[in-house]
Amino acid sequence: MSGTYVLLQFGSDPFSHHFEDLESRPAFTVKTVGESPNLVVQVAREAEWTQQHPDIMGPANSYLYFGPSKSPGYFIYGNGASVTMTTHIRQKKDSSTSRYFTTRHGKEMKWRVSPQKMECVDGRTTIATWDMSEPEDMFCGRLTIKHAGLSVVTEILTTLTLNRMAMALGWQL
């Protein structure tokens, strides 16, 4: 059992990219699956990567359903209930760069958000970090997930993607 898992992000478009592990196994794919009448994006965990990590739990995918003109809509984990996007990227203070979300099991977590780096925090423990790559890198970003994050890995990827989309779209929440 490794303490951390590194996923490399290929593609800089928050609406269309994929992650691979250091052995080039596909781990997650973010892609548009519909555009009529509004945008629908899927965040899918890849079976090949999942099989390498028996501690992975939770749904294998999520679907993000945007409102008109890519406004915030809702999303669904697996076959679960719909959740509004804004509840998973909420601020507690106007001046804060942290964005809070609640896991499917009711635990509150947060992302410390900036354009170059994001940290997913469970209480006082950082469980995942996303860093934008350097210009000389072959990839666009690096996501490092601690073992404790495997139980909510699809939620980590979904909320990371949602935060990056919100920044790209300039949502003022």
Helix content: 10-25%
Strands, total number: 12
Reported for the largest beta sheet, the result is:
12 strands, antiparallel
- The structural class is mainly beta
Q: What is the succession of H and E elements?
A: EEEEHEEEEEEEEH
Mean pLDDT: 94
- The whole-angstrom Rg is 15 Å
Shape: globular
| N→C terminal distance | 39 Å
Question: What this model shows, in words?
Answer:
There is one protein chain. By secondary structure, this protein is mainly beta. It is built from 2 helices and 12 strands; from the N terminus they run E-E-E-E-H-E-E-E-E-E-E-E-E-H. Helix content is 12%, strand content 43%. The chain has a 12-stranded antiparallel beta sheet. The longest helix has 17 residues, at 153-169. The model has no long low-confidence stretch (mean pLDDT 94).
Short description:
With 173 residues, the chain is mainly beta. The protein contains 2 helices and 12 strands.
Name the descriptors.
about 10% helix, 12-stranded antiparallel beta sheet, single chain, about 45% strand, about 170 residues, globular, mainly beta
